[in-house]
């Protein structure tokens, strides 16, 4: 059995690969950017390997001493201020590959289907640059090029399940863009085989599902697997999709940008012969992506929660924003001052309290819409609502008996905040 380091082990593919290789009897060390390890990998050996660290090259000799195989599974779909394709897909891996080639360490590079001579996006071109560099150094290496990878905890699975669960599913044009998704279990099984044999060394290996599917067919198959029924589809004119992609390019967390649109238009398919040869059977079809009725149910609930949580967030943001804007002057100021006086706040303090509270409400609304990490936000919102409720209960108890229920409605709002807090906390732990 081999001593293996997986760089990027905290990612979706990396952590599934670590578990599969450990189950096959290999000794696994997880190379990750941030310690500690995600909960699924607790108990594994770990080292800090960060392509953005200026000392990365100097640390390799110590970190890779006695290692037989290095697997690079680092990858991002979009760049941001802290992460670039150049660093994470190209320069960092090239430094790693140079060291491994000189040290006689076998390398498996997790690249991407489409990282070839026809690549048109920065994502694919950066992956191809690293792949070409690796094969120019050594033939004791394999380039693994998977299609879309589906599985629990995967970003693409979560996105496609969410879209498939919608009452009406939007399709770009006629939805004939082609993809060939592979299940994470088939991907990891194929890579375990690659670790154990050298037949494919010095080659690019395409790992894909059994047959190409159009986007329309994929959503139809997902709905069947998730037991949502046949589904209704709406066809979005391609110029509108293009416009949406251009707008998405300017937004940090948009679902669609120009590069992903280019990749989708190009298609993401290949011959499945490499996959079948490594697995010794056909990879599973979309209808079998859920291995049991219970797993299908979990996928279905997760998909529904994804857009239901979005609706809850939008509703909660609306409540905060309207409360803040109304308090700034739409609701009669004098009546607001009368209520504050009954609480014991008068004069300049009443003015300060009124406008500070309104501003805080608006800030909470905007943060609910745009803040990425919201755990602290939910706690702050819940604490403020509890304080409001206690103060009004003491000084204005008649509001409990108001026919519109201004205080009673705080109870379901607190419950929704608790739901968001718990679900986002669980999701954050799982996807670290």
Describe the structure using short key phrases:
single chain; 432 residues; alpha/beta; two-stranded parallel ribbon; 15 helices; 54% helix; 12% strand
Question: How would you sum up this structure, described in words?
Answer:
- The chain is of the alpha/beta class.
- The chain has 15 helices and 13 strands.
- The strands form 4 sheets. A 7-stranded parallel beta sheet has the order 3-2-1-4-5-6-11, with helices on both faces.
- The protein is elongated, with a radius of gyration of 26 Å.
Which regions are unreliable across 5 or more consecutive residues at pLDDT < 50? none
Please count the helical segments: 15
Order of helices and strands: EHEEHEHEHEEHEEEHEEHEHHHHHHHH
| Side-by-side strand order of the widest sheet | 3-2-1-4-5-6-11
Return the average pLDDT rounded to an integer. 92
Question: CA-to-CA gap between the ends?
Answer: 29 Å
Rounded Rg: 26 Å
Could you describe the largest sheet, including whether it forms a barrel?
A: 7 strands, parallel
How many E strands? 13
Shape: elongated
Find the structural class using helix and strand composition: alpha/beta
| Helix fraction bin | 40-55%
What share of residues are in beta strands?
5-15%
């Amino acid at each position: 059995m081999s001593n293996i380091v997986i760089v990027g082990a905290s990612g979706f593919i990396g952590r599934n690969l670590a578990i599969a290789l450990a189950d096959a009897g290999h000794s696994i060390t997880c190379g990750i950017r941030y310690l500690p390890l995600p909960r699924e990998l607790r108990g594994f050996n770990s080292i800090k390997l960060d392509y953005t660290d200026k000392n990365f090259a100097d640390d390799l000799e110590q970190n890779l001493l006695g290692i037989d195989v290095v697997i690079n599974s680092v990858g991002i779909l979009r760049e941001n201020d802290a992460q670039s394709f150049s660093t994470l897909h190209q320069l960092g891996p090239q430094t790693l590959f140079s060291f491994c080639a000189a040290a006689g360490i076998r390398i498996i590079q997790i690249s991407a289907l489409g990282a070839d001579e026809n690549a048109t996006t920065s994502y694919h071109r950066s992956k191809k640059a690293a792949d070409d560099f690796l094969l120019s150094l050594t033939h004791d290496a394999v380039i693994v090029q998977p299609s879309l990878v589906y599985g629990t905890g995967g970003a693409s699975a979560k996105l496609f399940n969410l879209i498939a669960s919608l009452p009406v599913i939007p399709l770009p044009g006629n939805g004939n863009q082609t993809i060939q998704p592979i299940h994470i279990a088939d991907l990891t099984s194929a890579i375990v085989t690659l670790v154990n044999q050298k037949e494919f060394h010095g080659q690019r290996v395409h790992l894909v599902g059994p047959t190409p599917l159009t986007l329309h067919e994929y959503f139809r198959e997902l709905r069947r697997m998730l037991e949502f029924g046949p589904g209704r589809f709406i066809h979005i004119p391609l110029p509108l999709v293009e416009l949406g992609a251009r707008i998405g390019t300017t937004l940090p967390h948009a679902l669609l940008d120009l590069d992903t649109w280019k990749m989708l238009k190009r298609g993401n398919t290949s011959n499945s012969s490499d996959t079948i040869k490594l697995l010794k059977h056909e990879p599973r079809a979309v209808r079998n992506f859920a291995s049991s009725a219970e797993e299908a149910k979990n996928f279905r609930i997760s998909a529904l929660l994804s857009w239901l949580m979005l609706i809850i967030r939008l509703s909660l943001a609306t409540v905060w924003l309207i409360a803040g804007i109304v308090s700034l002057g739409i609701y009669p100021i004098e009546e607001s001052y009368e209520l504050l006086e009954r609480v014991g706040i008068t004069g300049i303090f009443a003015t300060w309290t009124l406008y500070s509270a309104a501003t805080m409400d608006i800030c909470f609304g905007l943060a609910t819409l745009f803040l990425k990490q919201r755990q602290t936000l939910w706690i702050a919102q819940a604490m403020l609502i509890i304080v409001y409720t206690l103060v009004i209960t003491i000084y204005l108890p008649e509001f409990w008996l108001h026919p519109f229920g201004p205080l009673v409605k705080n109870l379901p709002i607190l419950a929704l905040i608790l739901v968001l807090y718990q679900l986002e906390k669980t999701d954050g732990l799982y996807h670290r």
